[in-house]
């Protein structure tokens, strides 16, 4: 066998992955589905395993953009981007433009997935269809009437103290606006709502809530225990 054949075989060799490698790659399947749900049908996301590049696609969303499916091989450009990532010491490639089947223009980026040994075991490729009618793309980002009504206000705080304070203030306003909650039950309901929002997972949140509501932290603990009892928690 000549050197050229040996090199060709080494490039297409099936690399044995550990179970932990497989676990890492499986954990990215939700990322594929999540990005697709956020951006819409004109964004194709492909999760590649480098264990076997002949059938590397192990998860794909919106594959109709390029006609690919699970089990499809890696692309030559993805291999090129892999080299780009390895040379640059980054975990993602430069953005690039490609033409899919039918001449569809795509803007893409490739993100490396590494295992505990810092070895690249997979690639997350995100491809946006630039030939899609802009009105349809824009429509996918617009909320439906039901979603618009259910939209939540988010506290983009700069630190955890601000996060707690903003959440407490918003919750106080919500409870004060609720005519069904009596004045003598407002603090209890506020604490229970804050518990449901997970705010007490933050260190020292109980003390800050107690100060803002002008109640003792023992009272806050009492209301939290009552909520846990209602939820059947231990």
UniProtKB/TrEMBL annotation:
Coiled-coil intervals, chain numbering: none
Q: Supply the InterPro entries for this chain.
A: DauR-like, DauR-like_HTH, YheO
Outline the extent of the YheO-like domain.
Answer: 25-134
**Pfam families from the entry?**
HTH_22, PAS_6
Residue ranges annotated for the Transcriptional regulator DauR-like HTH domain, each copy included:
168-225
Name of the protein this chain belongs to: Transcriptional regulator
* Annotated source species: Aliivibrio finisterrensis
